[in-house]
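Hi P.,

Sorry for the delay on this. The queue was packed all week, but I finally got your sequence through. Input first:
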Amino acid sequence: MNTHITHDKLNGHARLADLSISRFIGGRQDRKATAEVEENHKINSGQGGRFVKALIRPDYLKAINQIASRIRENFYKFTLPWHGEQRVLPISSYQSFIAIHDKLVAEFDTLADELAAKYHEIKCEAELRLNGLFNPSEYPKTPESFRQKFSVTFDQFSFPRETDLNDPALQARAKQAVSARLADCHSSLLERVAEVVGKFGTVLAKSDAVFRDSTVHSVADVIDEAEGLNFTGNAEISTALANARKTLAVFNDPEVLRNDKTTRAQAVSASKSVLSTLESLRSTLGATA
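Then the structure:
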């Protein structure tokens, strides 16, 4: 079965989204220092690697880099890949996504403001630490221009309409592209579940393995996420996720799984069954998207 979903129908379920995070890069290659190392060790030019100097001491950037990672992780959690950097954000998940996103961006902006406020201190420390490798031209001239290096941009927009293309051949190609990308979305969704279920089964299959409670609880969490990401309401995916939840729900107690070998073996078997179903469905997505 090959049921086509138009751009207009997609707009009733989701939006395209894009996330961009900019930061001041703390490291830069120093060509002069690289050449000096190669000369001192009699290495042919370009064959000895690269000398990368820390323009800013790493601990200054640690906190803001961590927040940047959390912003991107949250974006990926609530979206599925579509085309290039564009991802699909279900309308039903928008409020949950943006509540977390806005909080994290506020933390990011606060940390960027704090870095800009002590920019002179950061630059002076670099001059002393780098000594002869310090190059003022590699740094923003003012705290304000340094602050502008840090930003988070989130954009959302509608799927373009096929009817905007006057050429029937282009319209046909656009329809094919939608079907292919939707199939990729569904495949990515199921892969996300399969990865967590697979880890669950692999860990439990090792009799001496030590595992965290999150290894067990993450199974239900990822199924919840996947149900929210099934933005077109694909019936086969809904059924597969419901069956996965039912099959694995009885194995949700980490302590029981640690201490009861029989239950543990049953959990491993159940995880393999769920994985088999998910992989089988993924293999048919090209025909059912």
